[in-house]
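Researcher: We plan to redesign the surface later, but first we want a full-length starting point. Tokens attached.
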């Protein structure tokens, strides 16, 4: 499991609107997590838990932290990996702590500031979905501060390996990376006009054009036109009604 993305969490300013939006666009169902003293909603694809939804913590907006999706990566030892994040030039923003009966986590950024979380679950992990199953997260993309530095960092942390690399011309190299031999995402140096590095998560839908219409009618803003990618899939990128970045991927238009 070490190095596998296992959870996705949306921190936002309007959880009710966000819940209705993603249920409609991606096809998830939602249930209250029943966590004492905390409103936390679970997103499901069928019977599989995919992610969570919560109100942004106090102080985040004052620090100009926008609504965003945060990816959780499984690790063998949260404390040891958090220490390694610091040793390799990253930053630990929330020190390792336990979620009772759930697991242990830490929130960190890479050397250029892209945020992600470390996680080790308590007990056996739930059965995993096929990567491209509808409602799952099919792709993980890093707009990096610097591709070479970022890949070295994540490779040391998670054991990710290089898969195909695509020359994107003026945009530079797009490096696909793999976990246990399975391609799970790509990373590239961010364009100069993009102010900060970030992770972007691609949610699987059955057909792209219909999902785009659902997203736009729900208040999303398109960030790029639909685009075919190697392998024949189609992608589109958006900000949701509260401003969080997300993307959709489908096997057909």
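Model: Full-length starting sequence:
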């Amino acid at each position: 499991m070490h190095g596998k993305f296992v959870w996705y969490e949306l921190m936002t300013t309007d959880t009710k609107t966000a819940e209705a939006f993603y249920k409609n666009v991606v096809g998830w169902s939602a249930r209250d997590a029943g966590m004492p003293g905390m409103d936390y909603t679970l997103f499901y694809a069928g019977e599989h838990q995919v992610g969570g939804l919560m109100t942004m913590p106090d102080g985040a907006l004052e620090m100009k932290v926008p609504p965003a999706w945060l990816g959780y990566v499984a690790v063998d030892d949260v404390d040891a990996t958090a220490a390694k994040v610091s040793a390799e030039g990253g930053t630990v923003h929330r020190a390792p702590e336990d979620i009772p009966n759930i697991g242990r986590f830490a929130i960190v950024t890479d050397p250029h500031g892209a945020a992600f979380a470390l996680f080790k679950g308590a007990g056996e992990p739930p059965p995993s979905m096929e990567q491209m199953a509808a409602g799952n997260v099919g792709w993980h993309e890093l707009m990096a501060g610097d591709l070479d530095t970022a890949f070295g960092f994540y490779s040391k942390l998670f054991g990710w390996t290089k898969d195909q690399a695509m020359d994107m011309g003026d945009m530079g190299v797009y490096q696909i990376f793999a976990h246990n031999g399975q391609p799970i995402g790509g990373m590239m140096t961010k364009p100069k006009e993009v102010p900060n590095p970030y992770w972007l998560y691609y949610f699987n839908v059955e057909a792209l054009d219909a999902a785009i219409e659902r997203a736009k009618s729900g208040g999303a803003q398109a960030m790029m036109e639909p685009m075919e990618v190697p392998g024949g899939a189609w992608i589109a990128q958006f900000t949701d009604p509260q401003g969080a970045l997300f993307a959709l991927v489908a096997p057909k238009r």
